Every structure is written in structure tokens, then in C-alpha cells.
Amino acid sequence: MEELRLDSLDGVGPVTTKKLTDAGIHNIMDLVVRGPVEVAEITGMDKETAEKIVNKARQQLVEEGLIAKDFVSATEIYKRRQDIGKISTGTNCLDLLFDGGIETQALTEVYGEFGSGKTQFCHTMCVNVQKTKEEGGQEGGVLYIDTENTFRPERIVSIAKANGMDPEKVLDRIIVARAYNSAHQILILEEAGPIIKENNIKLIVTDSAAGLFRAEYLGRGTLSERQQRLNKFLHLLVRTAETYNCAAIATNQVMSSPDVFFGDPTRPIGGNIVAHTSTYRVYFKKSGKKRIARMVDSPHHPEQEVIFTLTEAGVSDPEEETKKKKKEESE
Ligand SMILES: Nc1ncnc2c1ncn2[C@@H]1O[C@H](COP(=O)(O)OP(=O)(O)O)[C@@H](O)[C@H]1O
Ligand SMILES: [Mg+2]
Q1: CA distances from 312 to 93, 163, 191, 288 (A)
Q2: What distance in angstroms lies between residue 115's CA and the mean position of ligand 2's atoms?
Q3: CA-based, 20 to 30 A from 114: which of 8, 18, 26, 130?
Q4: Sign of dihedral through CA atoms 143, 117, 106, 218?
Q5: Quick one: CA dihedral 75, 76, 77, 78, positive or negative?
Q6: Angstrom distance (rounded) from CA 118 to CA 201
Q7: How many A from CA of 22 to the centre of ligand 1?
Q8: Are 30 and 243 in contact (CB under 8 A)?
Q9: What is the pLDDT of residues 293-319, one digit of tens each?
Q10: Closest listed ligand to the CA of 148
Q11: In the chain, what are the domains?
């Protein structure tokens, strides 16, 4: 987009443009997303200059109507919130929990023990976001940051087929970035701006968000450093979701057994690291073959639980499965 060019800013000439581009900042949206402290850090420019440039970038985006002003009336916030899109989960039970689906401009944290369905949920949402708005989607693509090597295109194919969609087209709209360490995970998101715009990305999945940080920062001595780094990633994720009107999902693995864990076993390991930044937190729990999802700490959802299942079609309503079984039996 022409109006987003770095050199469209007053006082930004070819030299500064090059400095910024070399540091992975390609347009004025990137400037705002990264913020002055980071811009100074990665380009080596002094803090005052970075602040000036970022402020100008922010002003320009406000003028273009691309981001909200610093001081806004409640009416304007209300209007901006009207732009929030929802992505249906494709199930009645989880849509009830999310009040229609997961939101754009927001981060949804899904935490739960191993095998509780976090990754299956992510895969299902990769398909659902591509549906038309009438069908509960956002007609958008996906950026999938895979940190555990658990992304499976085969699952996308079966979920797409179950939804009557062309699997090849669905796969084509999912961009997968495999993160090898926590620094790489942050870098992927920092560089994602142009990809998000070019591909009309409406969903950013990070599965898992905390895993690499946890593995790399072992021991109590490095706990606060780990939190800082993870926070940096999550704040960037929230800002990116807000700036580009995308939905973000971050998964977080927790232990379930109360005797290995002091305090509330349903709290994520590492405390409430994610809680401060995520807008919605959902806890997934195994219950035999079924799964329970509970909405935790939401600013405007009631705290409630629903039961769902995992099938070939991804996350599903429990009744659907019962119906299908009955049909198979009667055939
Ligand atoms: N094709 C499938 N059909 C039915 N259930 C499946 C399928 N693939 C995975 N599952 C279910 O998903 C579970 C794994 O969920 P997953 O999302 O990988 O857990 P998590 O990411 O929370 O560790 C499996 O135990 C199984 O119950
Ligand atoms: Mg998983």
C-alpha cells in the first residue's frame, strides 16, 4: 500500500528507510507494531529519533483511519468494536462458550493438558476462518506458527472435506512457519507484517506459545527472564491482532495432576504469564472420550463449561457424534 511507505513520513529519507528495512521494518504499520524502544534497539538509532518516527507513523495511521486515536470517545471505541469479526468454531457447544466464535482484534489462549484437543482446535479454526462470513468465517488466510512440529496438513484435508470445502484451496491459504527456538518464534512474528497483509491473514495460530520458552529457560534463576521474553512475544501477538484486525490463538500446555502441582491445577504453568495479555482464556480438559471447555477470566463472557468431542471433522458437537453412530448402527 502506497500510503504505508516508510519514505512517506516527514524526515524519513533513503538512509533511514534502508536502516529500517534492514532491521525488518518494511512499512509504517511495522513501525507502530514494534514501538520506539524496539525500533531504537534494532536499528541503532537514538531513542528520541525512534520516538519521533514512531509517533509520526502512528499519526499517519490515525489519519488514514487505520488505527484508533489515543484519545477516543466511548462511541468511537464502540464503533471500532463493530469491526470485530467472529470466527465460528463450527460447533454449537463451543460457539455458545465463545458467544458466536473467537474474535478478531483479540488473543484467545487455549490451555490444557497433553491430548486435551488444543492442536485439533487450532486445525479446525484454520479451516473455519476461510469460510464466508455467512458461514461464520472471515474469508481469510492463516499464519500458523508451529513450535512443536504438530501441524498436520492431512488433518486440514479431512476437516476441509467434512465441511464440503476444496482441501487443496484450504491448504493453499495456510502459511506455516516452523519455529526452532524462542528467539526464532519472536522473529517470525516480527517479520509477519507484509505476509499478513499480502495474504489477507485473519487468523494467527501459535501452537504452542509457551513451550519453547519453557524448555529454554529452565530453573528458577531464569524465570523472570523467561517471563519477559514470553511477554514480549504475547504483547507483539496482541498488537498484531489489533493492528491487522486478525484473530490470534495461543496454546499453552499445563499439567493436570494436582499432586505434581501446588495450587490450582487448572492454572497454567509459569503462573499467569499469558493471562495478562490474552483477552480470552479457555481451559480444555479430558473427560474420558469427551472434552470439557471452560471459559476463564473473560471480560464479558459468563464463566461456563461445555462438552465437545474430537472427531475426523475436528472439534465437534457431542450430539453430532451420537447421531452419526446411531445412523451407522441403523444402516
Ligand atoms: N482424526 C482424528 N479423529 C478423531 N480424533 C482425533 C483425530 N486426530 C486426533 N484426535 C484426537 O485428538 C487428541 C489429540 O489432541 P491434540 O489436539 O493433539 O492435543 P493437545 O494439542 O492438547 O496435546 C487425540 O488423543 C485424539 O483423541
Ligand atoms: Mg498440541
Answers
A1: 17, 11, 34, 17
A2: 7
A3: 130
A4: negative
A5: positive
A6: 21
A7: 41
A8: no
A9: 999 877 677 778 999 999 999 999 998
A10: 2
A11: 2-63 (1.10.150.20), 88-323 (3.40.50.300)
The enclosing H or E element of 324 equals helix 318-330
Residue labelled with grid coordinates 470466527? 87
Q: Tell me the C-alpha to C-alpha distance, in Å, between residue 47 and each of 1, 41, 43, 58, 183.
A: 27, 8, 10, 16, 23
CB 259 within 8 A of CB 288: no
d(CA 331, CA 327): 6
**Residue of the CA atom closest to atom 19 of ligand 1:** 115
Query: For the whole model, what pTM was predicted?
Result: 0.80
Q: Does position 275 have pLDDT exceeding 80, yes or no? A: no
User: For 175-244, where are the alpha helices, taking DSSP H only?
Assistant: 182-190, 193-198, 211-216, 223-243
Pairing status of strand 290-296 against strand 305-311: antiparallel
Indicate the burial class of 35 (C-beta count within 10 angstroms; 0-12, 13-18, 19 or more).
middle
* Residue 216 confidence class, pLDDT cut points 50, 70, 90: confident
Mean pLDDT of 203-221: 86
Chain centroid to Cα 15, Å, comes to 34
